[in-house]
Design a protein that fits this description.
two-stranded antiparallel sheet, 15 helices, two-stranded antiparallel ribbon, 4 strands, Glycosyltransferase, 325 residues
Length: 325
């Protein structure tokens, strides 16, 4: 039975309980401090932040801020916004609706109005997929899944599940990269595409998990979600090894290909690291060392378009480490 919980889109009440139970343990201790001490000025970030305050701290005043921001931004035009950002912002708004869906200020009429607006925005964005990249298409499908949950429309949700499975079945190379996401002329853009693809796949899996649909374990040809999402991790440490760069020639002779800058690459990961907390939570108490090392450098993770303060929503407390890990 299709029964969305309408709680947080990517997490359930259990995550709130765990965050409170482990509030004095890292990484949650730092995440709680970040939640309570930070006041984002940008409206969409503030909407998400205050929605999380409502969910995790039962702060009804914070929830009212989210309600007021939603009322303004759901009606804004996206005509002048680049396609991926339009999709990502609409997905963020869908998350915010779920965060404050049961807030006292959210009347039945208001919820119905928001559902109509999300349906309209999602429908309009779906009409623009004809020239979208595979990364953009995956984010569009992530938004479709969220829209299915917000609207309680199971056919929309199931279509998104089918798309997710088709990506696993057909698009991911056994090594983990997606051939359609590679453009050697763009250099770092191909890596960014893979990070965004990883985020989209993980966000879909987490949304589905919250309504008891397991996409984490779906596999075909020896390929699964984790095949693609762990592929980029190596390049956080060794961006110069990224092979999808254009070959260069000087005077007709091939020269060493341009390599990705480590500072720029690591900054790219930091801006798109929300999925890493979710992926780390999937591995539980036996995380991949690479994930743990990256998270140690970027926590508490706050990824606006991929769940927000995911160290709070998905952070896993760690036991004492030995000398070598």
């Amino acid at each position: 039975m299709f029964t969305p919980t309408h709680f947080g889109l990517y997490f359930s009440a259990e995550a709130v309980k765990k965050a409170h139970d482990n509030a004095e343990r890292e990484p949650l201790k730092s995440a709680w401090a970040r939640l309570r001490e930070t006041n984002p000025l940008e409206p969409l970030s503030s909407a998400q932040w205050n929605g999380l305050r409502y969910r995790f701290d039962a702060n009804t005043q914070a929830g009212e801020f989210t309600v007021s921001i939603l009322m303004e931004h759901l009606t804004k035009s996206t005509d002048d916004t680049p396609y991926w950002h339009s999709v990502a912002e609409t997905l963020l708004l869908a998350q915010c609706i779920e965060l404050i869906r049961d807030h006292p200020a959210t009347t039945p009429a208001l919820k119905a109005h928001w559902r109509d607006l999300i349906f309209e925005r999602t429908g309009a964005l779906n009409q623009l997929t004809y020239d979208a990249s595979i990364a953009e298409s995956l984010w569009m499908n992530t938004l479709n899944m969220a829209t299915g949950i917000v609207l309680e429309r199971e056919p929309i949700f199931q279509d998104s599940v089918a798309y997710f499975k088709a990506i696993i079945d057909e698009e991911i190379h056994p090594e983990g990269y997606l051939p359609k996401a590679i453009d050697p002329e763009s250099g770092g853009q191909s890596l960014l595409n893979h990070l965004r693809i990883s985020e989209a796949l993980v966000l879909m899996a987490e949304m589905a998990r919250c309504i008891d649909v397991d996409l984490w374990r779906y596999s075909n040809r020896g390929v699964s979600l984790t095949t693609a999402t762990t592929y980029p991790l190596y390049y956080y440490f060794y961006p110069e090894k990224w092979k999808w760069v254009e070959e260069r020639y000087i005077g007709g002779k091939k020269v060493e290909a341009e390599v990705l800058d480590i500072d720029e690459t690591q900054q790219m990961f930091k801006k798109n690291s929300g999925y890493l907390e979710m992926l780390n939570a999937h591995y539980g108490t036996s995380p991949l060392k690479a994930i743990r090392m990256i998270l140690d450098e970027v926590r508490p993770v706050n990824d606006l378009y991929a769940g927000g303060l995911t160290t709070l929503t998905h952070g896993v407390t760690e036991g004492r480490r030995g000398l070598f890990g």
